């Protein structure tokens, strides 16, 4: 919905959606209805048009490249998470070039592009391991954090805050790992979600127990992970064990920076010290990715 709204509000920008398959399954029905599949011979009563902006092919790299090539427009790429790695080569080259240009003082001015990764590891039991692979998020977290933004919206408000911010940036690719379950609780207010987007992480103030003097810190990265962290928090509270619950939307902002640009993009030291005081060493992490990352 946020993408469709952005398209409607910017008719001067040519929209393009890279679609390898399953657009309706990935909950992009409104986008499809607005932009339609591009085909040479439209069928009646099907969202198809010779002028359609949804580029579809069972080739992930091809459809990603179709969006990446639309530098003067507004773009979106989506895929089942397990197949995101098929887009990695093309996306990585864009990230490297954008980073080099910024370093040379010629930052790219194309609107940042979201890569929506859904049907992901923690929700796809039907197809088992063939659809359970967080490698794309892990690979993009290995790239420069200020151009390769890997984010994990936890609910509607944090997803909306993320989309509000995304198209106000340039020369970046955002990997958005987002659930598509029928019901995801709204854990953050709109104000909290914007603060989470701005800072990259937040203490979940309404959870925890004696959170100002915690014995342990629970940190969640991912919507389902937050749900499990809150269940654990309730159990700890029942036993009067002091703890804090933290949510990281953009974990790359909490890494040890590897360049001046990453250092500038890093979360403020004051926030890191507040969320993770050095005096509290017991820390439990619930992560969407493999734990090594």
Distance between the termini: 31 Å
Low-confidence stretches: none
Q: Sheet with the most strands? A: 6 strands, parallel
Strand order of the largest sheet: 4-1-5-6-8-7
Write the element-wise H/E pattern from the N-terminal end onward. HEHEEEHEHEHEHEHEEHEHHE
Label the structural class: alpha/beta
Number of strands: 12
List the helices and strands and how they pair.
Elements: H1 2-9, E1 15-19, H2 29-35, E2 37-38, E3 48-49, E4 54-56, H3 60-68, E5 74-80, H4 88-103, E6 113-118, H5 135-141, E7 148-151, H6 156-166, E8 173-177, H7 190-199, E9 201-203, E10 216-221, H8 223-238, E11 243-248, H9 260-265, H10 269-275, E12 283-287
Parallel strand pairs: 1-4, 1-5, 2-3, 5-6, 6-8, 7-8, 10-11, 10-12
Antiparallel strand pairs: 9-11
Helix pairs in contact: 3-4, 6-7
Outline of the structure:
By secondary structure, the chain is α/β, with parallel strands linked by helices. The chain has helices spanning 2-9, 29-35, 60-68, 88-103, 135-141, 156-166, 190-199, 223-238, 260-265, 269-275, and strands spanning 15-19, 37-38, 48-49, 54-56, 74-80, 113-118, 148-151, 173-177, 201-203, 216-221, 243-248, 283-287.
């Amino acid at each position: 919905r946020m993408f469709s709204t952005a398209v409607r509000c910017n008719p001067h920008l040519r929209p393009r959606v890279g679609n390898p398959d399953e657009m309706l399954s990935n909950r992009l029905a409104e986008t499809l209805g607005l932009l339609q599949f591009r085909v040479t011979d439209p069928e009646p009563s099907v969202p198809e048009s010779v002028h359609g902006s949804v580029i579809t092919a069972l080739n992930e790299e091809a459809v990603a490249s179709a969006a990446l090539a639309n530098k003067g427009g507004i773009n979106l790429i989506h895929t089942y998470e397990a197949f995101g790695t098929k887009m990695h080569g093309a996306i990585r080259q864009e990230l490297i070039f954008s980073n080099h240009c910024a370093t040379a003082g010629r930052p790219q001015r194309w609107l940042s592009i979201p890569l929506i990764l859904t049907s992901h590891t923690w929700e796809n039991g039907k197809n088992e391991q063939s659809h359970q692979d967080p490698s794309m998020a892990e690979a993009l977290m290995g790239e420069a954090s200020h151009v390769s933004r890997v984010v994990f919206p936890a609910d509607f408000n944090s997803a909306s805050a993320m989309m509000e911010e995304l198209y106000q940036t340039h020369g970046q690719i955002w990997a958005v790992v987002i659930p598509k379950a029928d019901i995801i609780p709204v854990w953050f207010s709109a104000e909290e979600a914007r603060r989470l987007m701005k800072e990259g992480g937040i203490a979940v103030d309404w959870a925890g127990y004696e959170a100002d003097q915690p014995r342990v810190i629970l940190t969640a990265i991912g919507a389902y992970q937050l749900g499990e962290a809150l269940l654990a928090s309730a159990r700890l509270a029942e036993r009067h064990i002091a703890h804090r619950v933290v949510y990281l939307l953009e974990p790359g902002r909490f890494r040890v920076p590897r360049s001046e640009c990453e250092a500038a993009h890093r979360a403020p030291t004051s926030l890191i010290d507040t969320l993770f005081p050095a005096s509290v060493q017991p820390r439990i992490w619930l992560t969407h990715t493999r734990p090594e990352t």
